[in-house]
Amino acid sequence: DWTTGNVIEEQVAAIREQVGDRRAICGLSGGVDSAVAAALVQKAIGSQLTCVYVDHGLMRKGETEQVEKDFVAATGVQLKVVDAEERFLTALKGVSDPEEKRKIIGREFIRVFEQAQAEIIADEGPAVEFLVQGTLYPDVVESGGGTGTANIKSHHNVGGLPEDLEFQLIEPLRKLFKDEVRMVGQELGLPEEIVQRQPFPGPGLGIRIVGEVTKERLDLLREADAIAREELTAAGLDRDIWQCPVVLLADVRSVGVQGDGRTYGHPIVLRPVSSEDAMTADWSRLPYDVLAKISTRITNEVRDVNRVVLDVTSKPPGTIEWE
Ligand code: XMP
């Protein structure tokens, strides 16, 4: 019989058996999959698990705090947070090309994660043999089903560790679909904001600023995004929408009039979409009054933004993200 209780019980037993008295590492992204995978492994082996969260400074408002505070409070997990905002912003300085941004963010992410990994191993000894991954059933099918070990090259070796660290993978979500993962997360008592979180790209807000990524622009976009999310939630629309990227056109300016005078500010784009699997998507027909509320609030509350526009493009031809 499939129940979330059975799934949890079965996985906890299997993980205990697999890990024994050794140790595991898990990277948290703020997303559902890694959170549920980590919570399951935590339930099975407790303090033998260490989680790593790389704060690249490209998260939305409140998301890092959700991981640092709420997730830790709900699970009791041992968490290492790496504040790498400076490093990512420095690496992204002067870069506007979307692919270039993605490459830089991906590269820096791996470097920071590996460094944290090496530090944990230096602290805890060579018994760190397992890496937890939130692989879902659709990912398993897509990649042909093979798995087992991951070779992680460590560029930042500490204390005479071998050049190539070999980890065995723990993938407790391998048989589950997304909705089942959410149910398991709920059963494990994870915060609603994490369990019901809509998809969010790994490169974060870095690919939602058209133009160069700076701290100032990120802060501005974070404000606009938080307002859009707040109003969509208040209108009860979270389940009707697959996701709603909020995009800052940092290199575009338009003329406006606000308060006493003329402004020359940036547009914010709302990109609400409905979709089954993100392969194709349609733009969501949001109620006009909700759009009006979001627009009014963003232009009133977010400095330097004097225009809000709605993306009415399906996928294809438009992708969901702008970059
Ligand atoms: P596109 O823009 O290609 O996005 O229509 C499809 C889905 O994938 C998400 N996305 C990403 N997710 N890392 C991720 O984990 C990425 O680099 C990435 N890029 C896009 C996007 O949010 C949408 O759900």
UniProtKB/TrEMBL annotation:
Its EC number is 6.3.5.2. Homodimer. It is an enzyme of class 6 (ligase). ATP binds at residues 29-35. Residues 2-197 form the GMPS ATP-PPase domain. Pathway: Purine metabolism; GMP biosynthesis; GMP from XMP (L-Gln route): step 1/1. It catalyses: XMP + L-glutamine + ATP + H2O = GMP + L-glutamate + AMP + diphosphate + 2 H(+). The keyword ATP-binding applies. Catalyzes the synthesis of GMP from XMP. The chain holds residues 204 to 526 of 526 of the full protein. The keyword Ligase applies. GO terms for molecular function: ATP binding; GMP synthase activity. One of its GO terms (cellular component) is cytosol. This is GMP synthase [glutamine-hydrolyzing]. It comes from the Bacteria. Keywords: ATP-binding, Glutamine amidotransferase, GMP biosynthesis, Ligase, Nucleotide-binding, Purine biosynthesis.
